[in-house]
């Protein structure tokens, strides 16, 4: 595996739009923020913004125009499709890349297109983001494989469920990388188990794709993945695009859930002939800018090198886990062994004993310019499981129960880790300046301090 030294980090940081902006600080001068919230959305790569700006000079309709601008736009859209497919090892004869809004959109589309039958069972897991759980509940009976004491997927329990429901299991739905704990389920081993039980597998790769290489695999390989879902906004391409990559035979038949222009080959007064995949599932004018942005981000990630990204993240994760473990009253949830950092993503949930998770996040932001996420991360059952209290589901839903989440990205550095630890030490010792109150929007803020987002950006100037 490639070893990345901290000296390479400034070049990576400068590849990001907004890497040098300043944010307001309570009782002090504005400072450049430290971003530990990459699991929610990543900043934009500069190369992505440049590709989009270049495209806009040629922007026109896709697949429907005779003019040269339209031909350029169509070629760019299809080139983006090929780049996305190649990134995950898709075989054009076996797989199709369908562009849409994001991972949630992709998984909802797949839930519709699977055309589940009465009696079908879908196995999800306790680790899932709501996007890889709720869509399946709309179309079939869903059973959940449990997490183990470390917050990792209990693979033996998955195998038991597949055996118990053999002949009825239509799909195994599993995250490729947890947005809560950074856990990395063994997706290809799980695929082999699913296929042996006559089921298919879908992998929510939203959190995985920007951090680890992915190979969907040949359909003849028992460990192949049947479907993958990714989101550009977690891959340094925040232009509203994602993709569902999956079996071409699944999308070669059936009626799409969204119909209209682009989805048809022929329409008569009383008959419809649907288009071939992927057009059948891309209704209306597509998001050309989003598709190009996603492909441009993929190109940049490939140039940096997925092995280099993984090595950089593992080194920082190990450092971060080790430093957090030294702090009194801090509890790390999930796998906390620094020596096993390479076996997980750089996503770390924690709590400070005796402090509301929302207050911890507010102090870090308002007084230290450190961005984190707090709450249940659109994964209420999993957070309740980590907290050790199944009854915490309701408290997670209303914000009262939850954790603080740290998540690393390309620009994360040793300096960021040290800055975070210094801030947490001061916070634990109550050496923060503000007197905080819980506001109606569910956020804590220092009394008398109200920095306005519109001062930073407003469409009204």
Features:
14 helices, alpha/beta, four-stranded antiparallel β-sheet, 33% helix, seven-stranded mixed β-sheet, 19 strands, 461 residues
**Which stretches are low in confidence, meaning pLDDT under 50 for 5 or more residues running?**
1-10
Overall geometry: globular
Q: Number of DSSP helices?
A: 14
Helix content range: 25-40%
- Total number of beta strands: 19
Radius of gyration, whole Å: 23 Å
Distance linking N and C termini = 48 Å
- Overall pLDDT score: 94
User: Into which percentage range does the β-strand content fall?
Assistant: 15-25%
- Structural class category: alpha/beta
Order the strands across the largest sheet as they lie in space.
4-10-9-8-7-5-6
Largest sheet: 7 strands, mixed
């Amino acid at each position: 595996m490639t070893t990345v030294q901290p000296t390479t980090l400034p070049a990576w940081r400068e590849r990001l739009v907004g890497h040098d902006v300043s944010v307001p600080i309570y009782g002090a001068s504005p400072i450049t923020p430290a971003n530990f919230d990459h699991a929610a959305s990543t900043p934009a790569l500069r190369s992505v913004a440049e590709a989009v700006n270049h495209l806009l000079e040629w922007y026109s309709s896709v697949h429907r125009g005779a003019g040269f601008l339209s031909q350029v736009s169509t070629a760019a859209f299809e080139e983006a499709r090929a780049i996305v497919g190649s990134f995950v090892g898709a075989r054009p004869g076996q797989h199709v890349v369908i562009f849409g809004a994001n991972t949630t959109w992709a998984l909802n589309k797949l839930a519709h297109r699977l055309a589940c039958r009465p009696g079908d069972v879908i196995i999800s897991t306790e680790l899932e983001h709501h996007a890889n759980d709720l869509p399946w509940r709309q179309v079939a009976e869903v059973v959940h494989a449990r997490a183990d004491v470390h917050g990792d997927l209990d693979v033996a329990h998955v195998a038991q469920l597949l055996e118990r429901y053999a002949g009825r299991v239509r799909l195994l739905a599993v995250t490729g990388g947890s947005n809560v704990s950074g856990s990395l389920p063994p997706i290809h081993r799980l695929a082999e188990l699913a296929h042996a039980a006559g089921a298919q597998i879908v992998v929510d790769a939203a959190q995985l794709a920007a951090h680890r290489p992915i190979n969907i695999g040949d359909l003849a390989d028992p460990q192949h993945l049947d479907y993958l879902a990714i989101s550009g906004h977690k891959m340094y391409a925040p232009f509203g695009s994602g993709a569902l990559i999956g079996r071409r035979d699944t999308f070669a038949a059936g009626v799409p859930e969204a119909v209209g222009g682009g989805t048809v080959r022929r329409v008569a007064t009383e008959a419809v002939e649907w288009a071939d995949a992927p057009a059948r599932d891309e209704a209306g004018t597509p998001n050309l800018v989003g598709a190009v942005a996603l492909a441009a981000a993929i190109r940049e990630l490939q140039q940096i090198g997925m092995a280099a990204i993984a090595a950089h993240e593992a080194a920082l994760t190990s450092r971060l886990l080790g430093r957090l473990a030294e702090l009194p009253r801090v509890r790390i949830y999930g796998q906390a062994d620094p020596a096993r950092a390479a076996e997980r993503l750089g996503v770390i949930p924690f709590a400070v004993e005796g402090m509301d998770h929302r207050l911890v996040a507010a102090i870090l932001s308002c007084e230290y310019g450190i961005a984190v996420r707090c709450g249940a991360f659109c994964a209420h059952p999993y957070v309740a499981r980590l907290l050790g209290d199944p009854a915490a589901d309701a408290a997670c839903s209303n914000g009262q129960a939850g954790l603080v989440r740290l998540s690393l990205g390309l620009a994360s550095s040793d300096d960021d880790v040290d800055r975070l630890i210094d801030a947490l030490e001061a916070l634990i010792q109550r050496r923060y300046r503000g007197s905080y109150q819980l506001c109606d929007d569910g956020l804590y803020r220092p009394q008398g301090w109200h920095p306005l987002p519109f001062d930073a950006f407003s469409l009204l100037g």
